[in-house]
Specification:
It is built from 5 helices and 6 strands; from the N terminus they run ββαααββαββα. The protein is an alpha+beta fold. Strands 3-4-6-5 form a 4-stranded antiparallel β-sheet, covered by helices on one side. Strands 1-2 form a two-stranded antiparallel ribbon. α3 (about 75-100) packs parallel to α5 and α4 crosses α5 (about 155-175). The longest helix is centred in the middle third of the chain and has 25 residues, at about 75-100. The chain is elongated, with a radius of gyration of 23 Å. It starts with 6 loop residues before the first strand and ends with a helix.
């Protein structure tokens, strides 16, 4: 590496670590010719930038993540929950592939967390509210034509019930 190159590495927890909403990260600096004074100056500049924009990171999420990464069983636990998400994904995939709707089209998805529908002839916010108030199902209207469903939080035995309700309510809105 050339002596004038400053390498900056940014790490942080991700959804692969099951760390939803943990808004913090780690910054590492490295350079061939840097000494302690250079590192100290960089750290102070970075701390000033952080304080001027986000004030401070949350101690609870940092403490939780630190405890998790120190746990010798973390990789085994993550594998267990990846399998749970994979099973949920497969059930959702099977459902949307085997059910047709004039009002809903499943957008491409391959995640174990969310999927979205493109809506035809109905409004996403109206469907979202109908699902919430009539069926107790929470979804997200991304825009007027896109409804997002977080199936990661659905137990396997509820997936067919929830998706059947989504399809039924979408069809009912289309037929009005």
């Amino acid at each position: 590496m050339h002596e004038n190159v400053l390498a900056i590495k940014i790490d942080g927890p991700t959804k692969e670590d099951f760390a939803w909403g943990f808004r913090y990260g780690f910054i590492t600096f490295g350079s061939k010719n840097m000494n302690d004074a250079h590192y100290d100056a960089l750290i102070k500049k970075m701390m000033g930038l952080i304080r001027s924009s986000v004030s401070c990171s949350t101690t609870p999420s940092q403490s939780i993540m630190l405890g998790a990464i120190k746990d010798p069983q973390i990789e085994e636990q993550k594998l267990k929950y990846r399998k749970v998400l994979e099973a949920r994904y497969k059930l959702v995939r099977k459902f949307v592939d085997s059910h047709k709707s004039s009002a809903l089209e499943a957008l491409p998805f391959n995640s174990g967390y969310f999927m979205s529908f493109n809506l035809k002839g109905i409004d996403a916010e109206e469907l979202r509210q109908k699902l919430l108030y009539d069926r107790g199902i929470g979804t997200i209207a991304i825009d007027a034509k896109t409804l997002r469903v977080a199936f990661s939080s659905l137990d396997e035995d509820k997936i067919e019930i929830v998706y059947t309700a989504i399809f039924e309510e979408a069809e009912s809105l289309l037929k009005r």
